[in-house]
Amino acid sequence: MAFEVPALPYDYTALDSVIDEKTMHLHHDMHHAAYxxxxxxxxxxxxxxxxxxxxxxxxxxxxxxxxxRSAVRNNGGGHVNHTMFWxxxxxxxxxxxxxxxxxxxxxxxxxxxxxxxxxxxxxxxQFGSGWVWLAGKPGGEVQILSTPNxxxxxxxxxxxxxxxxxxxxxxxxxxxxxxPEYLQAWWNVVNWDEINKRLK
Length: 200
Ligand code: MN
Prior knowledge:
Layout: H1 21-42, H2 47-50, H3 54-59, H4 66-87, H5 99-109, H6 112-125, E1 130-136, E2 142-148, E3 159-165, H7 172-175, H8 179-186, H9 192-199
Antiparallel strand pairs: 1-2, 1-3
The protein binds manganese (II) ion.
């Protein structure tokens, strides 16, 4: 069973106040689709690996044959990251976090605003393309980190609770080079219900 791009859980125009329709089409239909296509191509001769989930493939990259390790890292990561990304946004989202994620943020960062500032700062400082994350540690604590390219915290033994895409393809049409503005606006479409499910 080959990997597939999941359909967006909302319309391409649904997040328009923060992410424009053209960016959504390019990002989902072209960029995410390319990661899936390239992942499937890399796994073509490896039926045993095709049976695994994309998360399991990138969880232990050393277990992936060297010939396809980079392809799986980049494209498996791209698939996992973007599948997460579409799901943790929604029209009319945002606002203060709720439930267990609100508690985790408060416990670790003091208040939501301090957390947002640290998260945005990590996203701004990620040089070049990558992601900024809130990830869970094995002991249950949470931390902010950024990763280059399509690397996912899962490959470092962390649980990706949620992340924002800071590749230029995620924001350049609407925000041009103003990554901080995109990071700030993005909180208005965050889906805290879905994030709480991922935290659990
Ligand atoms: Mn992307």
